[in-house]
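Homework help board

Subject: predicted structure for assignment chain

Our instructor gave us this sequence and asked us to write out the predicted structure in token form, then describe one feature. I got the tokens but I'm not sure how to describe them. Can anyone check?
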Amino acid sequence: MSFGDPNNPYGQPPQQPQAGPGYGYPQQPGQPAQPGYGYPSAPPVGQPYGGGYVPTQMPGITRAAQILLGVIALAHVIIAAVYGVALAQWDESMAEADLTAEAEQYADLGKGVIVFFAGLAAVFAILGLVLLLQYAKGGSSVRVCSIVYASFAIVSGLFALAIYLLGLVIWVVSILVIVFCAKRASTEWFRRPRY
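My token output:
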């Protein structure tokens, strides 16, 4: 079989590319530099990057998610304060009541539940604050953690319904944070290259 035979399974040998300026060849004055050698450069601002554009400022929807995350954290500070006041009132009412030893054990159990919920609300407030501060420089993990945090805030809103409908506010704001963080503009903001 020859190389010109159309039935040859190996086909013709590949042609060698023409040697030209680039790697190993000196650049001629007035010629642009050849791309592909050395380290890759960052895409210019406003140019396509992975299907979208490289944002230079935080998009409005992402800024709204950040602000609403702050609202959730503030709501948990309020919840922790309400539980703290209830704890102080609990001690006063237990001191005034004349309880038996068995009733005092149940009272201590109720006090433990209040302390647990107050601590949980304080931890939620701190986590919200940490996430809030990471929005400007954080990566995709901040977006995912914000969605998870807002999901847990929906559950914690159940326990706050009795506090002046604060739980309802937490539900609405948490759902908005989840929706805003799932938007494409937020995804592109958290996936942007950081140099």
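Reply (TA_rk): Your tokens look well-formed. For the description, you could write something like this. The chain has five helices and two strands. That's the kind of observation they're looking for.
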